[in-house]
């Protein structure tokens, strides 16, 4: 069972997860998958409003550029990483465990650092290794959160 972590911020992340899931099912008949947006479900503000904000920003290019440039810095990345890990790791861990996956695959930049920590903690708690992989789906240019 594969758990894909994605978000509906543009069409590429979900499309990539769906395509990967179909390949898994072709290569490993009988495999199953689920798609989950842990940031929307378990994230603190402002991250849990990412989908709504993305839709607004994509219609307002100047605002998009401002938010992108502010958030695409090492300082913001470090602050966001600490904030998200402290605010949502436990709930993300519980959410991942509720799916009981064999592997976790992230296709979104905000769904990498916290899930890596959660999977490590799951492994420590259960004694069962839970692999997690990241597939970078922003091929034009990568945001620092990747």
What is the 3D form?
globular
Structural class per helix/strand content? alpha/beta
Helix content: 55-70%
Distance between the termini: 24 Å
The biggest sheet amounts to: 4 strands, parallel
Describe this structure in words.
The protein is an alpha/beta fold and 146 residues long. The chain contains six helices and four strands, in the order E-H-E-H-H-H-H-E-H-E. It has helices at 12-27, 38-42, 50-58, 61-71, 74-99, 113-126, and strands at residues 2-5, 33-36, 103-106, 132-134. The model has no long low-confidence stretch (mean pLDDT 88).
Output the keywords.
146 residues; alpha/beta; globular; four-stranded parallel β-sheet
List the helices and strands and how they pair.
Blueprint (H helix, E strand, L loop, with lengths): L1 E4 L6 H16 L5 E4 L1 H5 L7 H9 L2 H11 L2 H26 L3 E4 L6 H14 L5 E3 L12
Helix pairs in contact: 5-6
Summarize the structure.
The protein has 146 residues and is an alpha/beta fold.
């Amino acid at each position: 069972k594969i758990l894909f972590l994605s978000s509906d911020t543009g069409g590429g992340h979900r499309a990539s997860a769906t395509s990967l899931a179909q390949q898994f099912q072709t290569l490993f008949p009988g495999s199953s998958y689920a798609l989950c947006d842990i940031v929307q479900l378990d994230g603190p503000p402002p991250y849990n409003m990412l989908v709504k904000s993305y839709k607004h920003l994509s219609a307002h290019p100047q605002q998009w550029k401002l938010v992108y440039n502010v958030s695409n810095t090492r300082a913001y990345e470090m602050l966001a990483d600490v904030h998200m890990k402290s605010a949502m790791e436990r709930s993300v861990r519980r959410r991942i465990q509720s799916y009981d996956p064999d592997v976790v695959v992230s296709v979104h930049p905000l769904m990498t650092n916290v899930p890596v920590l959660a999977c490590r903690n799951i492994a420590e708690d259960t004694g069962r290794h839970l692999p997690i992989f990241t597939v970078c789906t922003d091929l034009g240019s990568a945001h620092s959160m990747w």
